[in-house]
Amino acid sequence: MPVRVNLDRVLLERRMSLTELSDRVGVTIANLSILKTGKARAVRFSTLDALCRELQCQPGDLLSYESGPPASYDDDELEG
Question: Which of 55, 59, 61, 75 is 20 to 30 A from residue 32's alpha carbon, by CA?
Fold first, then answer.
């Protein structure tokens, strides 16, 4: 998928663990791990908001776009 998640880089820059971030944003470590490893297929705006608030960053710091083949999405994945 052309959208990449840079959570690992931002965490490293902030010297913050996934466990600490999980405690701060109220998202399970398992779900953050899925996001961090790029296996997530969607992210809620409320989650993105909480991540940006706690990491003191912009959405563009967490997400990047790399050109590649288009991904196909289910209609319910686009809600949020």
Answer: 75
Confidence of residue 78 (pLDDT cuts 50, 70, 90): very low
The answer to the question of residue 74 being in a domain is no
What is the tens place of the pLDDT at every residue in 2-55?
899 999 999 999 999 999 999 999 999 999 999 999 999 999 999 999 999 999
DSSP code for 3: E
33/29 Cα distance (integer angstroms): 6
Domain that holds residue 14: 3-60
- For residue 78, what are its two tokens? 């686009």
Q: How far apart are CA 36 and CA 12, in angstroms?
A: 12
- Pairwise CA distance, residues 50 & 69, whole Å: 30
The CA distance from 48 to 5, in Å, is 11
